[in-house]
Amino acid sequence: MDETTKENFLKALTKVIPPDRLYTEDEISDDYGHDEINTIFHLPEFAVKPMTTKEVATVMQCANENNISVVVRGAGTGLVGGAIPTTGGLLLDLSGMNEIKQLDTDNLTLTVEPGALLTDIKQYTETRGFFYPPDPGEKTATIGGNISTNAGGMRAIKYGVTRDYVRGLTVVTALGNVMHLGGKFVKNSSGFDLKDMIIGSEGTLGVITEITLKIIIKPEVTMSLLVPFPNFKDAIKAVPNILRSGITPTAVEFFEQNVIKYWESFSQKIFPEDGHQAYLLLSFDGQKEAQIEDDYEKIAELCLEHGAEDVYVLDDVKQQEEIWSARGAFLEAIKDSTTEMDEVDIVVPRSEIVSFVQYVHQIATTENIRIPGFGHAGDGNLHFYVCRDDYDQKTWQEKLTKVFDALYQESKTLGGQVSGEHGIGIAKKVYLRKSLDEVTYTAMKKIKQVFDPNNILNPDKIL
């Protein structure tokens, strides 16, 4: 960016954003240069913290007029570089737009700003007897970020993903215009569904400034089962039988013993019922205790029939919270066990989970590299983490590229896709390109051009 453009843009920004919410040069925090995975670093030339839709719209008008690239950021908990300003330009920090604006009990909706944290939405709804079901692992992520990647989480098997709970959006376009998409209504067959196009677009099509979420009545009863198996094959092969039983668990999570060991080292705690090779962790929820008990007892018997070594009913609230908390910390535990890592967020048909996990083990052995992981066995979304450990930079990059190429090709062969819930960002776009046919990829590019004719919104992400 030349100095004249910088000066003109800064002048325009100072007319819109007060000095205490406008940052340049040394005022820009290093936190703005990376996300949670921390493998890519690049700072913006400007950063602003707008507080209203009007401010966002005016900033976008200024950016478009000056041809300045814009990247939107929430809490920075992403894992694919989606919120990193890799082309410099302007970073739009929406973390200050975090108000929970309205709970509408008649329409069962919650209206919030994009910077509201998932944990705050959970607390706000549940203390009032309501429930926002999507449950991504990172509870300090913003709802705007969740919508931008269509985050899934552990409860997707029963309740669906973020997309299924977005009723309405206010979106500022790249040109600085404001769109109101969807609303508090349940059904809509009124033209193209632009709302669903914005969801999952990772800040490349527009800036979300207000959200209307669907909520439900909070389940009165929650129960969990921890089910150990002698090996990962038996554990995963039990899942289709569970899903065919007519009982839908709230979550079905899969992990192996090595991940537990990393968690124990990380947390300095002992995992309950440790010592088994593989586990399924299931939860059930509903309004009637008798029904939940009947459901989990049937599933427990079914697991034992299909190779489980035991079934532990987590009827103690403290133990239940401890185990689910451990599951939520697996990513941090793996990250703590190595010098650097990168992640694979692959989704495959549930019938192919065994084949894919087996392939991961094979690649780890062949390449002599650690690839621990875990996954949502109920929906086929698997998370594996390639660990650098003591490899030098050159060897690490060679191995990482080779492993990624192999795993993404295998997922394509098995009928899967590049990302189940973390998105594409900059880190995975080369693999998305390989996974899509030419017609689909060209259609995505044309959609981007219509929404963002000057290519200023997150310009080098996804495509």
From TrEMBL:
Pfam families in UniProt: FAD-oxidase_C (PF02913), FAD_binding_4 (PF01565)
Residue intervals of the FAD-binding PCMH-type domain: 40-218
SUPFAM superfamilies tied to this protein: FAD-binding/transporter-associated domain-like, FAD-linked oxidases, C-terminal domain
Alphabetized UniProt keyword annotations: FAD, Flavoprotein, Oxidoreductase
Gene Ontology MF: a single term: oxidoreductase activity
Signal sequence range: none
Superkingdom of this protein's organism: Bacteria
Cofactor(s) demanded: FAD
InterPro entries the record matches: FAD-bd_oxidored_4_C (IPR004113), FAD-bd_PCMH (IPR016166), FAD-bd_PCMH-like_sf (IPR036318), FAD-bd_PCMH_sub2 (IPR016169), FAD-linked_Oxase-like_C (IPR016164), FAD-linked_OxidoTrans_Type4 (IPR051914), Oxid_FAD_bind_N (IPR006094), Vanillyl_alc_oxidase_C-sub2 (IPR016171)
PANTHER family from the UniProt entry: GLYCOLATE OXIDASE SUBUNIT GLCD
Protein name as it appears in the record: Glycolate oxidase
Organism the protein comes from: Loigolactobacillus rennini DSM 20253
Lineage of producing organism: Bacteria, Bacillati, Bacillota, Bacilli, Lactobacillales
